[in-house]
Design brief:
The structure is a homotrimer.
Chain A lengths: L3 H11 L2 E5 L5 H11 L2 E4 L6 H7 L2 E5 L5 H16 L4 E4 L7 H13 L4 E5 H7 L17 H11 L2 E5 L3 E4 L4 E4 L12 H13 L5 H20 L5 H13 L11 E4 L1
Parallel strand pairs in A: 1-2, 1-3, 3-4, 4-5, 5-6
Antiparallel strand pairs in A: 6-7, 7-8, 8-9
Helix pairs in contact in A: 2-8, 2-10, 3-4, 4-5, 8-9, 9-10
InterPro entries (chains A, B, C): Hyethyz_kinase, Ribokinase-like
Enzyme class (chains A, B, C): transferase
Catalytic activity (chains A, B, C): 5-(2-hydroxyethyl)-4-methylthiazole + ATP = 4-methyl-5-(2-phosphooxyethyl)-thiazole + ADP + H(+)
Chain lengths: 262, 262, 262
């Protein structure tokens, strides 16, 4: 089903434009990750231009991490422009459940735009699923499972991706569990945001979003596994991870640990 | 008095939530430093949610580095919510004295909220102390001494921390001088902001703020000393410093150079 | 004509204040690059203080990367204050041609302030020159040549710098081509923005802007060449590049590949 290497090669060949509305904390890392997989990032959030950019992008990545009222306006403008122009949208509901403002913003984006992939950590996704969730900081890991992913996928008409030690992916009909990665990723701020940039890059070249979600997760996490072997802590891990993404080889995908279901 | 290792272990065990209103330049590094010492950072500054987050945080870190009128509103909202909920506040008065807007903002925060620790470089702190000060760029070092720290501590009812080649700390009654660190830290933008994240993490687990200020300074600066041994310049120093914070061991604190007084 | 080492030493001695209105994505890297060459960065963009800061800076660097209506106001306030106080201005027209909002903003800055150096990539500069240009993401390279640089220099009364595999520099009368650097720089987001910080640092100590543009380009790109030898990918390249800037030696300038004309 997945064809990691071919899709990665297509990204590198086409250099698709990935329009990010990315939080301030991770903007730089997300742009560098996008470049490392071969796509072309543009980070822009002004209401004066987001519609124009989203309409001609190859994928739109909305990450609400450092939202305020002006960002929310831009999320909706960009999301609607993307939807209208058949540009696939990835939504990262950072901190959903942590404040009312965040949960409400995520629901507005889900209702008013066409989100293809909804990707969050366990706490965020459980909060959105109405399952009792507790979040302690946006980098914390909650617990979740494939049922939550399926519920979210059906409820919101999206491919749901719950990241964690094991990643749960479901489009409501088919599902997958990805078990790559390393625990040290939790010590890199925005590692979950960065994996979104990789998934969005695959979404730009392949419209089977269950597949592209798995491809993005595996690519990022296999690179992290390789990187960790020569890292002493989380800061060198981040540097080495981006280097590994840039140097990805076909054989690296033999490390993929994916279980497809349904 | 200090018990570096025990307090660090408490941070790692409790993973306290450190709410940052951090400048754009250093957001990413500050979040990664916070994770490396074992705490849980949340970087959020929208007026719509800062009160909700500050009220449930374990410490609030207000850094005015890239302030504008909207940030100022959020500083005050967050600071008041923290004060009301007995959440300790660290204030970094970046560029105080450099423009009227900055000095005025710092004074408003000091007057309208309950600041526990006021941490700045020599020029900033001298400007605030009414001592004639000149600032040339926010990364420049001014000159200051323990008298300035004591004066500030008494005047504003805070623990004052003046960073520099030697760090001066005073709560108005007791004081300390920390002589760790390396000159190359001056070449990392926001190294002073990052040390604030470490101090705030200790403040979240120990309410003796003279002690936690010293613990934060020593932890960061000892890690910097160890990092420098295998660094070729300031960019590798930053990577290695975060890695060393993550790998901190009890014996590392034997490198502490602290002189307590009073 | 150029005297790389002497001008670099002057920067290190005077530590000139480089006021940046820099996009969010590259703020941290630009500040670190500025520190590495020995200058003193200040990143501030609030309308409440940009005039005060720009007026006393040694150079002003306006980079429109993540503009919105509030940034535009600050660009103009800072630019006018700099012009009035004889502070040289470098303008980076990020994404000019990609949206109407960007092109319009660049033209307003060029018309209403005294820009000394206009530095952009091929697509941006071609768009501004009225030559048919297509931009695909702000990190993409367009094609351009010395004629475009000369046309821009004369039309806008600036020193025009077009970055790319070969950099084209012209002040309308004299011109130069710089052929240093490495293709991997394209995989570091904002590498073009960072070179602006280096040029602005040289502008602060030497008012022959054709010369200082060449000095900035050569310094950054020679450091990149040295860095690449011990880098595995773009993330380690960025770390090593900043380290090399910090460790620049006189002999490094023997690597300069510059062709002066006119």
């Amino acid at each position: 089903m997945t064809n990691y290497w071919d899709d990665l090669q297509t990204i590198r060949k086409r250099r698709p434009l990935i329009h990010h509305l990315m939080n301030y904390v991770v903007m730089n890392d997300a742009a560098n990750v996008t470049l490392a997989v071969g796509a072309s990032p543009i980070m822009a959030h002004a209401r004066e231009e987001v519609e124009e950019l989203a309409a001609k992008a190859d994928a739109l990545y909305i990450n609400i991490g450092t939202l305020d009222d002006r960002w929310v306006e831009s999320f909706l403008l960009a999301g609607k422009a993307a939807s209208k122009n058949n540009v696939p949208v990835l939504l990262d509901p950072v901190g959903a459940g942590a404040t009312g403002f965040r949960t409400e913003t995520v629901l507005r984006i889900l209702n008013e735009t066409e989100v293809s992939v909804l990707k969050g950590n366990g706490g965020e996704m459980m909060a959105l699923a109405g399952v009792a969730g507790m979040i302690k900081g946006v980098d914390a890991l909650g617990e979740a499972n494939l049922d939550v992913a399926e519920k979210l996928a059906r409820e919101y008409g999206v491919t749901a991706v719950i990241t964690g030690p094991r990643d749960y992916v479901s489009d409501g009909r088919r599902s997958a569990i990805v078990s790559n990665g390393t625990p040290m990723l939790q010590y890199i701020t925005g590692s979950g945001c960065m994996v979104g940039s990789v998934i969005a890059s695959f979404m730009a070249v392949n419209r089977d979003f269950l597949v592209t979600s798995v491809e993005g997760l595996v690519t990022f996490e296999v690179a992290a596994e390789k990187a960790e072997r020569r890292s002493y802590g989380p800061a060198s891990l981040k540097v080495n991870l981006i280097d590994e993404l840039y140097n990805m080889k076909p054989g690296d995908y033999e490390l993929a640990k994916v279980e497809f279901k349904g």
